[in-house]
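Checklist before submission:
- one chain only
- standard amino acids only
- sequence pasted in full

Submission:
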Amino acid sequence: MPETADDHVVEAELTGPDFTGLDFTDAVFADQEWEGRYFVGCRFIEADLRGLRTRGCRFTNCDFTRADLGASQHRATAFHSCTFQRTTLADSVLESCSLMGSTISDCRLRPWTLREVDLRLTGLGHADLREVMFAGLRLTEANLVQADLRGADLSGADLTGARLLGARLEGADLRGARLDADALVQARLTGARIDVDTAIRFAVANGLRVDLGM
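Returned file contents:
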């Protein structure tokens, strides 16, 4: 049976695979290894998770406000509809993971390594994502309003339905990326690298008439 409690849990070692509604505020789990554990509605506020390594774990509706996840490593782990506010994620690595529906705000992110990560519906508004590698990732319907993506690699990424109002994409690599017309109008694209198809869609989205004839 899943472990449930209303009390504040501070133990540094966890027993059992399932945890629901537990409060891990200020708990220390630094450098631990978790595999196949499931957390629902748990609070990791200001928890020390630096260097944590997870594999095949799932966090649903969990709160990581002001937690330290720096230098942590995650493989095949899901963070669904979680809150990351003023969280330290610098030097963390996510591989074959999902952040779908999570909100990431006022966090320390760089450097941030993402490999085959699902970012659908993820809130990254105002985030500092300069030079982050998003190549080939799914960012459909993500919130990237006023995000700083200067120099980021978004080649081949799916940004369909993503909100990019005021996003800074100067110098970003957008070759092969899927972008809506609104994004091509609302984002700041000076110096971005694009392919011919995107150039044509950019021109059309900005009211230009494209004549490919001689």
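Reviewer check: Helices lie at 181-186, 196-205.
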